[in-house]
Structure formats: C-alpha cells, structure tokens
Automatic annotation (TrEMBL):
Pfam families: BAH. Keywords: Metal-binding, Zinc, Zinc-finger. The lineage of its organism: Eukaryota, Sar, Alveolata, Ciliophora, Postciliodesmatophora. Gene3D superfamilies: 2.30.30.490, Zinc/RING finger domain, C3HC4 (zinc finger) (3.30.40.10). Signal peptide: none annotated. One of its GO terms (molecular function) is zinc ion binding. The keyword Metal-binding applies. Residues 46-158 form the BAH domain. This is BAH domain-containing protein. The keyword Signal does not apply. InterPro entries: BAH_dom (IPR001025), BAH_sf (IPR043151), Zinc_finger_PHD-type_CS (IPR019786), Znf_FYVE_PHD (IPR011011), Znf_RING/FYVE/PHD (IPR013083).
Length: 208
C-alpha cells in the first residue's frame, strides 16, 4: 500500500473494530488483576479523602449526604465510615417556611458503607457563606443546626434561631430579601411590599 493512501471503507471499519477489541481486552486484564481494586470509586473519584462531604447512594434509597470520617481497606475491600446529614425538607419532612430547599442538619448517625457507594463530592457551607455563592449549583448545601434522629430534636432549637424582618422568622435564603440602607437589617421583599429606590425600614424612617 502506498504511503498516505486511504483504506477502503470496509477495511477501515475492520481496523476500528480490532482497535476497540484490543482496548477492551486491556481493560479486562486490568480489572482481573489482583493489584486492581474494582471499586468504581477508585476509577471515577480517586481524590475522596477523610473530611470530604459526599453524595452517597445506598441500594433501595435515594442519594443522601454524608461526611467521610474514615477510609480503610480489609481483604481487598474498601469501606468508609460516614456521618449522615439530614435534608430538612426531603428527609425530615419539615414544613416550616423558613427552611431552605438545600438546608441540611448534621446528625450523630454514624455508618460504615462500601466505598463504591460514594457518588460524588458536594459542598456544605454556613448560611452566611451560602448567601454569597451561586445557588444554581445543585451540589451546594448549607447547614446551621444539628439533628438527633433518636431524640428527634434539632440543636439549636428553632426558637433560638436568629430572627429577621417584620415577620420575625428565621432567615430562608431561598426567599428574596433586601437590607435596610441605614441599619442594614434584613427584610423579605414579600413582607415590605412595593418601594422605590433605597429601602429604609420603619424604624429608620421614623428616626430619619
């Protein structure tokens, strides 16, 4: 065959099929090797480490969020100890209108799971930091309290959460809000109604 001459179409297809078969054979040998761990986490998420917060998929359940406390390997099987978060709305089914859709409660529930159950890393930040970040990120969550599943209690209790606005409810970052131009207190747009220009709260307007 002359150099640079294009192979006929049927021969090119045969060559592509042979190359694909060769790659598949190499993968099969790698998977069957005693030095290769078949856990998907090693192939897809090699950077998972202690302290990371991840999405966790257990068979028969919807994905949950947990903190990785420890990773260990015994007899070639990798497992990790995790500390579960509870979703305020999906998991606890709380209906308070001051709870955010991406709000989590860290719990004292500890569990050992196969490392292959780890799906991906997510970010869990404080409420104050969450308000400054892009909330369109589906892997971004915030937390401001803990939850005890045995006692079914939240700490600090809702009554101790910081109150804002005229409605005197805890802040929900999902709702639109504005700060008073003078005292910088926080108010929900739904609570103050229409206004023009900079907003002054009732107290600051009275003292102005």
């Amino acid at each position: 065959m002359q150099k640079g001459r294009l192979l006929p179409l049927h021969k090119r297809r045969l060559l592509q099929e042979a190359q694909a078969a060769y790659k598949l054979l190499k993968l099969e040998k790698m998977y069957s090797s005693s030095s290769y761990n078949s856990s998907p986490i090693d192939f897809a998420m090699p950077s998972i480490k202690t302290g990371d917060i991840c999405s966790v998929r257990l068979e028969g359940t919807h994905p949950g969020i947990a903190k990785v406390l420890e990773i260990k390997e015994e007899s070639g099987v990798k497992t990790c100890k995790i500390q579960w978060f509870y979703r305020a709305i999906q998991d606890l089914e709380l209906s308070h209108d001051f709870l955010g859709s991406n709000e989590l409660f860290i719990s004292n529930l500890i569990q050992n799971v196969d490392l292959a159950c780890i799906d991906c890393k997510v970010d869990v930040v404080s409420l104050e930091e969450y308000k400054t970040l892009d909330k369109s990120d589906s892997d971004l969550y915030f937390t401001r309290a803990s939850y005890d599943p045995k006692k079914k209690t939240v700490n600090p209790t809702f009554s101790r959460w910081k109150r804002v606005c005229y409605c005197k409810k805890p802040e929900n970052p999902d709702k639109e809000f504005i700060n008073c131009a003078k005292c910088h207190a926080l108010f929900h747009l739904a609570c103050i109604g229409d206004f023009f220009g900079k907003y002054l709260c009732k107290k600051c307007t009275k003292n102005n």
